[in-house]
C-alpha cells in the first residue's frame, strides 16, 4: 500500500474511532429517545410519514424511509447506524477535503477530522436529538468535494477542446538546453488526455538554477478525475538546468497519459451527497447552498435540477398537503433565536459553533469558563490557516472553492447573529408572516453548520503553517537538522491541536456525558400497536406533544405514538420554547384535544374522524375532564403504562387521494434512488478506472 493509501486508511480509522467514542452508549440494545429524537421498533407508511398529514412535512423523508426499512430491520438499530455513519462521514469528509484542497499530510487531515466531529454544534444537536440534521451536516464536506471536482473537470474539458488540434508530445524529455517558447504546445498526446492550454516546458534560466513552479492558472487533471494543483508541485533546486526542465516535462506527460474526465461519476457523487443531506429539509438547504456557491456557473442549472430531485419528498409533500400556503407562527423567531453562552456573547458563541436556542441541550462544559477557552482555542486554530486558505494556489478552481467556503462560513456565522438582534428578529418575523415556508429559517443556529467545511480546511492549513514556522525556526537555530524533524514537528503540532479541540469539550465523549443513551419501551406499546385494527385517526392524552417517561430519562421527548402506531396520530404541532408556546399547523388536532379535555362526547369525536384514543399514563400533562369522555368509549387494552380506547361509529374523513399518495411515493422513490445509486455509480466508475492499465 502506498503512503497516500495508508494515510487514507488511518484517517478513516481515526474518524471511525472518534464517532464510536461519541456514540458509545448507543451500541447497547435499545432506542434513542431524547427530545426530538424518537426511534421505534417499527414505523408505518401513514399519511403523516409521507408528509401528507395536517402538520408541515418537517420529518420528510426520514419518517417514510424508516417506515419502509423497519419492516425488515429494527428501527432503533437503523437510527443508531445512521447517526454513527453520519459522524464518521463528517470527520472523514473533512479530512478528505483537506487532502484534496490543500494536499495536506496526515497530521493536518486528522486535525480537520477532529474539528468536524468534536465541536459544540455536534454536541448540542445530539442533545437536542437532531440525528437526521447531523446526516445533512456530515454531507457538507462531501458536497463541497464533489462540487469542486465538477468545477475542475468542467474546466479541464474546456481546455481539452481547445487542445484537440494541438496535443502535447509523449516523447522522452529532452536533455538539451533548448526549450520551446512560452505558450507553444508540443505534439502527439494520448488521445484521452486533458491538459490546460498554457502548459509548456519551462524556459531556460540564464542564471543559477532555481525552483521551478507552474505559471499562474496551470492545473492538471489527476487520475481520480479531479483537477489538483498539487500534481505540479514546487520542487527544490536542482543541480542542473536540464534535470529541472526534464522533471517538469515528465510530470506533464504523465498527467497527459493518466488524465481522465469522469463528469457522470462526479454528478453521481453530488447526487448522493445532496440526497444524504436531504434526509431533512434543513439538511437539503445546507447542501444546496454549498453546491450553489462552489459549482461553475455553467453547471448551476443542472445542479439545481439535481437538488430539486434530491429534495423531491418534502417539496412534493409541501405542495400536496397545502402546508406551503400557511405561514408559520412569528413567535418562533424569537423563541428559536441563537443564544449567548457564558463569556462569549451571541456572535462569539456562533463563531465557536455553539449557541443553540435551548439552554438545556448543551453539555455541562459549555456552561462554564471552558466554553470561552474552547472557543478561543478553536478560533485560534482556524485563524492560523485563514490566510493560507484564502491565498489559494495556482489552480483557479481550487482557489475559488477555498474562498467560497470562507465566504459561506462568514455568512453562516453572521446570519444567525443578526437574526438574534432586535432588528433581525423583526425582519424575520415579517418574513415568516408573509412568506409561506420561511419557517424553515426560524432556527437560525442550524445554519452555522455551513461554516464547518471552511473551519476544517483552515484548521488543517493552520497545522501546516505552524509546522513550517517551527521547522524554519529550528533550521535557523541549527545548521544540522535530523531528516525526520519535519515529520516529527507535524505530528507534534497536530497532537497539540487535537488536544486543544477535544479537552475543553471533554464531555462530548460517551454520549455527551451519558445523556445520549438507549431506552427501552414497555411491552404495552407493542400490544397497543397490534390492537389498532380499524379505521380512524388516533388522539393522545395527556395534551401536548412532549413527554417525560420513567424509561426515557429526565429530558422531555417527543411523543413516540406517531412513529409507533399504524394509524395517523393527531398532533397540534405546538412547541413550548423558553416559556412561550409556538403554534403549529394542526388545527383539527387542537380541536380534538380541546374536545377531550372538556369531556366531549364520543359522537363528536367520531364526526372528527377519531377512531382511537391512547392514554399515556406515566407522563405528566393536562388531562382536564377527559375521564368523562373516556367513560363513553370502549376500552381495548390497559396496563400500568398505556390504555387504548375505541371510538364507535367513526366517520370517514377526506384523506389524500390515490394520486397524491402516488406522487409522494414517487418523490420518495426518486430520492432513495439518488441516495443509493449515486455513491454506487461514483465508486463503480472509480474502481473500473483503477483497474484500467496505464500505458
What are the low-pLDDT stretches, counting only 5+ consecutive residues below 50?
A: 168-242, 247-261
**Which descriptor suits the 3D outline?**
globular
Going by helix content, strand content and strand pairing, the class is: alpha+beta
Radius of gyration: 29 Å
List how many beta strands DSSP finds.
13
- How far do the termini sit from each other? 21 Å
Oligomer: single chain
How are the strands ordered across the major sheet? 6-11-13-12
Percentage of residues assigned to helices: 40-55%
Beta-strand content: 5-15%
Largest sheet: 4 strands, mixed
Mean pLDDT: 85
Alpha plus pi helix count:
25
Structure description:
The chain is an alpha+beta fold. It is 53% helix and 6% strand. It has 25 helices and 13 strands. It has a four-stranded mixed β-sheet. Strands 2-1-5 form a three-stranded antiparallel β-sheet. Strands 3-4 form a two-stranded antiparallel sheet. Helix 3 packs across helix 17. The longest helix has 34 residues. The chain is globular and about 90 Å long. About 13% of the residues have low confidence.
Summarize this structure as a short list of keywords or feature phrases.
four-stranded mixed beta sheet, 13 strands, alpha+beta, 695 residues
Q: How would you concisely characterize the structure shown here?
A:
The chain is an alpha+beta fold.
Amino acid at each position: 500500500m502506498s503512503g497516500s493509501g495508508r494515510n487514507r486508511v488511518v484517517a478513516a480509522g481515526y474518524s471511525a474511532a472518534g464517532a464510536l467514542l461519541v456514540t458509545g452508549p448507543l451500541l447497547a440494545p435499545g432506542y434513542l429517545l431524547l427530545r426530538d429524537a424518537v426511534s421505534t421498533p417499527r414505523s408505518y407508511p401513514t399519511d403523516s410519514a409521507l408528509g401528507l398529514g395536517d402538520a408541515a412535512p418537517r420529518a420528510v423523508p426520514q419518517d417514510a424511509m424508516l417506515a419502509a426499512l423497519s419492516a425488515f430491520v429494527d428501527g432503533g438499530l437503523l437510527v443508531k447506524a445512521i447517526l454513527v455513519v453520519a459522524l464518521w462521514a463528517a470527520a472523514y469528509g473533512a479530512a478528505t477535503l483537506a487532502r484534496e484542497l490543500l494536499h495536506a499530510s496526515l497530521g493536518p487531515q486528522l486535525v480537520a477530522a477532529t474539528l468536524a466531529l468534536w465541536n459544540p454544534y455536534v454536541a448540542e444537536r445530539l442533545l437536542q436529538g437532531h440525528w437526521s440534521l447531523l446526516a445533512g451536516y456530515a454531507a457538507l464536506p462531501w458536497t463541497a468535494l464533489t462540487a469542486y471536482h465538477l468545477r475542475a473537470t468542467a474546466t479541464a474539458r474546456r481546455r481539452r477542446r481547445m487542445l484537440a488540434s494541438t496535443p502535447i508530445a509523449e516523447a522522452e524529455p529532452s536533455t538539451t538546453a533548448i526549450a520551446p517558447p512560452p505558450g507553444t504546445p508540443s505534439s502527439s498526446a494520448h488521445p484521452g488526455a486533458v491538459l490546460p492550454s498554457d502548459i509548456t516546458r519551462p524556459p531556460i534560466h540564464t542564471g543559477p538554477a532555481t525552483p521551478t513552479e507552474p505559471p499562474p492558472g496551470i492545473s492538471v487533471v489527476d487520475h481520480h478525475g479531479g483537477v489538483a494543483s498539487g500534481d505540479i508541485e514546487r520542487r527544490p533546486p536542482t543541480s542542473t538546468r536540464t534535470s529541472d526542465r526534464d522533471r517538469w516535462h515528465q510530470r506533464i506527460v504523465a498527467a497527459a497519459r493518466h488524465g481522465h474526465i469522469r463528469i457522470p461519476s462526479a454528478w453521481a457523487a453530488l447526487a448522493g451527497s445532496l440526497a444524504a443531506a436531504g434526509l431533512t429539509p434543513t439538511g437539503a438547504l445546507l447542501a444546496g447552498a454549498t453546491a450553489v456557491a462552489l459549482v461553475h456557473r455553467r453547471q448551476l442549472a443542472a445542479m439545481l435540477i439535481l437538488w430539486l430531485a434530491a429534495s423531491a419528498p418534502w417539496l412534493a409533500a409541501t405542495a400536496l398537503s397545502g402546508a406551503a400556503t400557511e405561514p408559520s407562527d412569528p413567535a418562533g423567531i424569537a423563541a428559536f433565536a441563537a443564544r449567548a453562552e457564558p463569556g462569549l456573547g451571541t456572535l462569539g458563541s456562533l463563531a465557536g459553533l455553539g449557541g443553540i436556542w435551548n439552554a438545556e441541550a448543551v453539555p455541562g462544559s459549555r456552561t462554564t469558563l471552558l466554553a470561552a477557552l474552547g472557543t478561543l482555542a478553536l478560533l485560534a486554530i482556524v485563524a492560523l490557516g485563514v490566510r493560507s486558505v484564502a491565498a489559494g494556489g495556482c489552480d483557479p478552481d481550487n482557489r475559488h472553492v477555498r474562498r467560497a467556503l470562507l465566504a459561506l462560513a462568514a455568512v453562516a456565522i453572521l446570519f444567525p447573529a443578526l437574526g438574534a438582534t432586535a432588528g433581525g428578529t423583526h425582519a424575520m418575523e415579517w418574513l415568516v408572516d408573509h412568506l409561506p415556508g420561511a419557517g424553515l429559517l426560524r432556527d437560525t443556529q442550524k445554519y452555522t453548520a455551513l461554516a464547518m467545511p471552511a473551519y476544517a480546511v483552515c484548521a488543517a492549513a493552520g497545522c501546516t503553517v505552524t509546522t513550517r514556522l517551527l521547522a524554519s525556526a529550528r533550521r535557523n537555530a541549527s545548521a544540522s537538522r535530523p531528516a525526520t524533524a519535519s515529520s516529527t514537528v507535524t505530528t507534534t503540532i497536530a497532537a497539540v491541536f487535537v488536544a486543544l479541540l477535544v479537552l475543553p469539550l471533554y464531555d462530548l465523549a460517551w454520549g455527551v456525558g451519558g445523556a445520549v443513551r438507549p431506552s427501552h419501551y414497555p411491552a404495552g406499546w407493542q400490544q397497543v400497536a397490534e390492537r389498532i385494527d380499524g379505521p380512524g385517526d388516533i388522539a393522545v392524552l395527556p395534551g401536548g406533544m412532549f413527554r417525560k417517561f420513567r424509561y426515557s430519562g429526565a429530558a422531555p421527548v417527543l411523543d413516540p405514538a406517531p412513529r409507533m402506531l399504524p394509524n395517523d396520530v393527531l398532533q397540534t404541532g405546538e412547541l413550548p420554547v423558553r416559556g412561550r408556546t409556538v403554534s403549529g399547523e394542526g388545527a383539527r388536532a387542537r380541536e380534538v384535544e380541546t374536545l377531550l379535555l372538556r369531556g366531549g362526547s364520543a359522537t363528536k369525536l367520531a364526526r372528527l374522524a377519531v377512531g382511537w384514543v391512547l392514554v399515556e399514563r406515566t407522563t405528566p400533562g393536562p388531562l382536564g375532564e377527559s375521564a368523562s369522555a373516556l367513560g363513553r368509549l370502549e376500552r381495548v387494552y390497559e396496563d400500568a403504562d398505556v390504555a387504548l380506547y375505541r371510538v364507535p361509529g367513526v366517520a370517514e374523513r377526506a384523506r389524500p387521494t390515490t394520486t397524491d399518495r402516488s406522487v409522494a411515493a414517487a418523490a420518495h422513490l426518486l430520492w432513495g434512488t439518488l441516495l443509493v445509486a449515486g455513491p454506487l455509480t461514483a465508486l463503480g466508475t472509480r474502481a473500473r478506472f483503477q483497474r484500467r492499465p496505464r500505458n
